[in-house]
Design goal:
2 domains; single chain; globular; alpha/beta; eight-stranded parallel β-sheet; 312 residues; 14 strands
Length: 312
C-alpha cells in the first residue's frame, strides 16, 4: 500500500502539470443500477498507457459476486504493443484505497487517530489499510446494514492492523467520534446527517458515482471545503455535488481544487484545524494506469505471471 500511495502521488502530480491524457469515463448502463465503463489513460512521466474495462453491478452481492469487477490492459506507449492483461478487481481496490490515503495525507488533520467506515466490503478494507499508512490510526468503527459483514470486517481488520475496529451501532455512531470518515457504500441516499460532523473532520467519499444518487447530504457538502480527483469528471458523475448544485446549496465554485493541484502546492488544502474537508472521488483512469504499471513492473522484477503470444 505504501508503494501504491507513492505512485498515485506521482500520477496526480503529472495530472496537475498537464502530463496526462485521460478522457472522461465512457459508460453504458446495462440496467438502471448496473453499468460497464471504459477508462483509458496515459501518464507521460511514468511512461504508462492503460485501458480499464470496469463493471459496477449493485445486484452482485446477492449473487455472491463482487460489486466492482474489471480488466486492465497495459500497452507500451512507444510501440503500442500489449504488455499485459490483468484482473482489475484487486488493482481497483488498491488504487481506490491508496487514493483515500493520499487524500487524507494532504487534507486530514495530522493528529487524526480515529476512522469511521461506511461499507464493509473489499474497498472498506483497503481504505483503512491506506489510512493507517499516512496517519497514526488507533481506533476505527465500521457501519454496514448487513450486520454479518460488519462483524466479519471488525474481526479481520482488528487482527490485520492490530487496533480495535468496532462495529458501529448506527450511522451516527460511525460519525460522532471519527476524525476521518470514509464512505464506500452502495447507498443511493445520504448515509448520515451532515449536521453531526465535528469541526476538523475529513471525509473521503468514494462509494457512488451516479449523477442522480448520493451518499452525502446537502449539509455535509455545504459545510465542507471540497476537493475532487477531477473537476470535469465530478461535475459529470458526482451526484453528491451535482444534486447540491441543482438544489442551489452550492455553485461549481464550491469545488476548491483537484487533488493534483493540492499535491503540487498550487492550491491550498486544509487551512485550519477546524475546517471540515471533503475529498469526493468518482475514479479516473490515471489511478488505474499508475497502479497497474506498478503491478506490472513488480511482476516483471519477480518473474511472475503467465506469458502469452497474443499475435498468434
Amino acid at each position: 500500500m505504501h508503494e501504491t500511495i507513492a505512485v498515485l502521488e506521482k500520477a496526480f502530480k503529472e495530472q496537475a502539470l498537464g502530463q496526462t491524457i485521460a478522457p472522461s469515463r465512457s459508460a453504458i448502463h446495462v440496467t438502471k443500477d448496473d453499468w460497464i465503463g471504459i477508462m483509458p489513460a496515459y501518464l507521460r512521466g511514468l511512461q504508462a498507457f492503460s485501458t480499464k474495462i470496469v463493471s459496477v453491478y449493485n445486484t452482485n452481492p446477492g449473487r455472491n459476486l463482487p460489486t466492482i469487477m474489471g480488466t486492465i490492459v497495459l500497452n507500451d506507449p512507444e510501440t503500442g504493443e500489449t504488455l499485459s492483461v490483468m484482473d482489475g478487481s484487486f488493482i481497483t481496490a488498491m488504487r481506490t484505497g491508496g487514493l483515500s490515503g493520499l487524500a487524507a495525507k494532504y487534507l486530514s488533520r495530522k493528529d487524526s487517530h480515529s476512522v469511521g467506515i461506511f461499507g464493509a466490503g473489499v474497498q472498506g478494507r483497503t481504505h483503512l489499510v491506506a489510512l493507517k499508512e499516512v496517519r497514526d490510526i488507533t481506533t476505527a468503527k465500521v457501519y454496514d446494514p448487513m450486520a454479518d459483514r460488519a462483524k466479519t470486517y471488525s474481526q479481520e481488520m482488528s487482527k490485520k492492523l492490530q487496533i480495535p475496529v468496532d462495529v458501529a451501532q448506527s450511522p451516527s455512531d460511525a460519525v460522532n467520534e471519527s476524525d476521518i470518515i470514509v464512505t464506500v457504500s452502495t447507498s443511493k441516499e445520504p448515509l448520515f446527517d451532515g449536521r453531526i460532523i465535528r469541526p476538523g473532520t475529513h471525509v473521503n467519499a468514494f462509494g457512488n458515482s451516479n449523477p442522480s444518487e448520493r451518499e452525502l447530504d446537502n449539509e455535509t457538502i455545504r459545510r465542507s471545503k471540497v476537493t475532487v480527483d477531477s473537476r470535469e469528471a465530478a461535475l459529470l458523475e458526482a451526484g453528491d455535488l451535482i444534486m447540491a448544485i441543482k438544489d442551489g446549496v452550492i455553485t461549481t465554485d464550491h469545488i476548491l481544487a483537484d487533488l493534483g493541484e493540492i499535491v503540487v502546492g498550487s492550491k491550498p488544502g486544509r487551512s485550519s484545524v477546524s475546517d471540515i474537508t471533503l475529498f469526493k472521488s468518482v475514479g479516473i483512469g490515471i489511478q488505474d494506469c499508475a497502479a497497474a504499471s506498478l503491478a506490472y513492473k513488480k511482476a516483471v522484477e519477480k518473474g511472475v505471471g503467465t506469458s502469452a503470444d497474443l499475435l498468434r
